[in-house]
């Protein structure tokens, strides 16, 4: 049991190198403990032999798709979080190369800026099941709600409802347990972006709800939890709960300030919105409607 736990630990590596280690030595013992504790919240380098993890990027919509699999399970069951239609072939080729068995195509919400790859993937691999939240009102094979667990091999994701960007947004968090990845990993969709958050001006968006969702469902996770969002527009790849609690320029503020910021974002509507939203309500394949979901 101990061996399995160690095997699945994400190794904490300092994002800083030697000069900071020197400065540790110059400080009293209590100060270095404090710095080490704070560093734990910001460390993002990880390794876990059991968990296959790939962050994949679709550059037109700046979308991240995540591939996860249990490499130690005989079938190597895998899932994709937020696949994009344009990069579905790339992702499926990688899955084949790695000898994984894709079982789920999962969405964090009904996206407005790109078409999901779920439907397309299902036409190519009919055994794959699509998953989305019940609250999204979209078509899929399986619907999840807060507290549900999605198992792939011996690893699972826990579902946390995080409405606010859209009504049906959820965050998927790796399980809390001795044989689960450590630190935990949160796939936050558009609820929490790195140093930002999803807009709240359409699709049932609400800045009031988003603030509550992030503070109650994400900022209550351990501070070293890794944060992987559905988009990044600034070149960031990963953050942590502790880092976003401290430095997120929107969500580290009080609720009234946050609501004011969100009201004044003045973003133009996503270019693909009129195509993407109706398509994503039916798994990304409008022409074949719900049969493909
Ligand atoms: N320019 C892009 C859309 C950019 C955008 O609005 N992104 C959304 C997430 S996708 S609906 C968002 O919430 N952004 C928050 C922010 O602060 O940027 C396009 O035309 O597709």
Automatic annotation (TrEMBL):
This is persulfide dioxygenase. Its EC number is 1.13.11.18. One of its GO terms (biological process) is glutathione metabolic process. It catalyses: S-sulfanylglutathione + O2 + H2O = sulfite + glutathione + 2 H(+). It comes from the Eukaryota. SMART domains: Lactamase_B. GO terms for molecular function: metal ion binding; sulfur dioxygenase activity. Belongs to the metallo-beta-lactamase superfamily. Glyoxalase II family. The keyword Mitochondrion applies. Pfam families: Lactamase_B (PF00753). Keywords: Acetylation, Dioxygenase, Iron, Metal-binding, Mitochondrion, Oxidoreductase, Transit peptide.
